[in-house]
Amino acid sequence: MATARKLRPNQKVKLYRWNWSGKGPGGRKVGGEIIAAQKLEVERTLQGQNIIVKSIKRKGGFGGGMGKIGPRDVMLFARQMSTMIRSGVPLLQGLQVVAESLKKPAMSAMVQEVMNDVAAGASFSDALKRHPQHFDRLFCNLVEAGEQSGSLDRMLDRVATYKEKVESLKGRVKKALWYPAAVIAVGIGVTALLLIKVVPQFESLFHGFGAELPAMTRMTIALSEFAQAYWWWGVLGVAALIFFIRTGMKKSEAFAYRMHAWSLKIPVIGQILDKSAVARYSRTLSTTFAAGVPLVEALDTASGATGNKVYERAVEQIREDVATGQQLAFAMRMTEQFPPLAIQMVGIGEEAGSLDAMLNRVADYYEEEVDNMVDTLTSLLEPFIIVVLGVLVGGLVISMYLPIFELGSVI
Questions:
Q1: Dihedral through CA 382, CA 259, CA 170, CA 81, nearest 10?
Q2: Which string of DSSP letters, residue by residue, matches 86-103?
Q3: Is residue 308, in this structure, part of any structural domain at all?
């Protein structure tokens, strides 16, 4: 288990994974893995457990095996802290127990930093705000609301549930995007391999025929020669295009907006992205509003959670309209971006005084729609991709064997 050291506020903790082996009570051979900053800390921990240390080696890997903190790590942290606080464990002690139980050194180090800040007098929410790259505004707002209302365990449980559903939705959308992209990449790779490596072998064979080759074969050979001469230009072009798009979206807000707007117009894929943005907006707004966060502030949080610049700008417009006294449903209708069903359900929720519950239903509905569309897309793409690959590969093979067939008929 990891050791938690007391550090000065804001001092970074750098932890590593250590593999150890030794002898326990009775001379039994034991071994394992410990997360700690220094080898000396590992030795002290093992000596405290009456273990005779034989060897301690730091585990290799990039960054000393620290690992990268992901959304699922943050979700697990929220769930564990909720359980600790609900069980009556004090906040500082709960943070220490969680830090020691985490297997990823980077996450354990960050929790220790939060623990040090809390020990120095900061509130839990303020300590989390010092790590905005991992704890977003929604997380910090819910923790702050939980501290003020005395229901921190429920708020942490709520934010963990929220993140579980959002990550599940992201996974479905990624599945819809990556599946066709991966198959297309494989198809292009197989075709390029045939053109660059296989076709030239047939070409050398055809030189001895002494007869005119079929048009389809000549076209394939010409395409092969072009691929052999310029294939690396194609690779560089694709890499440059990806780099340009990624850099442009990071540097230019207008370019990112245009790319997101274009993505919403892609057949089928655009509908999946559109519905997922509505679902994430509804889920975020429901979670924050139900926690007691004012609607205007909740909309500010929801704008960044949509995952799409078009919807982000639309939610910002909604926030401005709601701040001037407009109803949420009317403000959503004014953007001309949200589907009528979502607007009607939000309007009913406002009239009935159950806006958070109705927003949750909207999110559930559109998450299910995304799930169904991803399944439909996958089932429709499979036969289409098989046909395309069959035409590409089969066409190349037939074009290469046509001269051999003709030669056989002449003989």
A1: 160
A2: HTT--HHHHHHHHHHH-S
A3: yes
Domain encompassing residue 92 = 71-163
In this model, does residue 310 exceed pLDDT 80? yes
* 192 and 43 assigned to the same domain: no
Q: Identify whether 9 is part of a domain.
A: no
- For residues 196 and 114, membership in a common domain is answered with no
Residues forming beta bridges with residue 32, ordered by sequence position? 20
Provide the pLDDT for residue 64.
Answer: 45
Q: Encoding tokens for residue 398?
A: 């037939």
Entry field: residues in the chain: 411
Per residue in 216-243, pLDDT (tens digit) is 888 888 888 888 888 888 889 888 988 9
Angle between the N-to-C axes of helices 105-119 and 91-101, in degrees from 0 to 180, rounded to the nearest 10: 160
Chain Cα centroid distance, residue 131? 19
Give the model's confidence band at 32: pLDDT under 50 very low, under 70 low, under 90 confident, else very high.
confident
Task: Report residue 181: phi and psi, to 5°.
Answer: -65, -40
Residue 2 lies in a domain: no
Distance CA 302, CA 193 (A): 47
Are 113 and 129 spatial neighbours (Cβ–Cβ below 8 Å)?
no
Angle between helices 355-410 and 340-352 (to 10 degrees): 160
- Contact status, residue 80 vs residue 101, Cβ threshold 8 Å: yes
Provide the 10 A C-beta neighbour count for residue 370.
24
Q: How far apart are CA 137 and CA 166, in angstroms?
A: 15
Q: Domain tally for the chain? A: 3
Pick the more confident residue, 374 or 25.
Answer: 374
Q: What is the pTM of this model?
A: 0.69
Distance CA 183, CA 386 (A): 10
CB burial class (10 A; 0-12, 13-18, 19+) of residue 324?
A: exposed
208 has pLDDT over 70: no
- Beta strands per DSSP E along 7-161: 16-23, 29-36, 52-58
Encode pLDDT of 70-79 as tens digits. 888 888 898 9
Measured between alpha carbons, how far is 280 from 13 in angstroms, rounded to an integer?
34
143 three-class SS: helix
